[in-house]
Amino acid sequence: MSAEQAKKRTLLAVIGDEDTITGMLLAGIGQIDNDAGEDYKQKNFYVVDAKTTDEQIASCFDHYTIDRDDIAILLINQHLAERIRYKVEDYTAAFPAVLEIPSKDHAYDPEKDSVLKRVKRLFGE
Asked: Which of 57, 60, 103, 120 is the most exposed place for a label (fewest CB within 10 A)?
């Protein structure tokens, strides 16, 4: 990645449940773009509810990690990352960095975190 490409990556993106997204928006991470010529608005957050399918979560994950070049860090609730674990485990690019976070109703389990698993492999644990 060139320095020019790295300068574009200025946003956090979040895939989470309603409480997580609400907290992040209150913290000021919300960004909605409506570029000229586009008929839709691009958001840097995606609310997952009981009706959201695994395919929709995977599609959003791909959109944030492949299609968007302005995202530096992607935060995803760990219990949602479990639903698309195959995508999270296969993702190896440096940017955006994918970090799993806890939610109000689901505790964080370091044994499931893909980043910590990679670190343990590096140190031979």
From this structure: 120
| Residue from 31, 26, 12 nearest 98 by CA | 12
Vertex 112: Cα angle to 106 and 117 (nearest 5): 150
| Alpha carbon 28 to its chain's center | 16
Q: What is the CATH number of the domain that holds 102?
A: 3.40.50.10580
User: Which residue segment(s) compose the domain that 17 sits in?
Assistant: 3-122
Residue type, 74: L
Overall number of domains in the chain: 1
Chain segment 10-52, per-residue pLDDT in tens: 889 999 999 999 999 999 988 887 665 555 568 999 999 999 9
pTM: 0.83
Ordered alpha helix ranges (H), the chain: 3-8, 18-27, 54-62, 78-83, 85-90, 114-122
Distance CA 26, CA 36 (A): 27
**Structure tokens given for 75:** 């935060």
CB contact at 8 A, 83 and 112: no
Q: How far apart, in whole angstroms, are the C-alpha atoms of residue 92 and residue 108?
A: 22
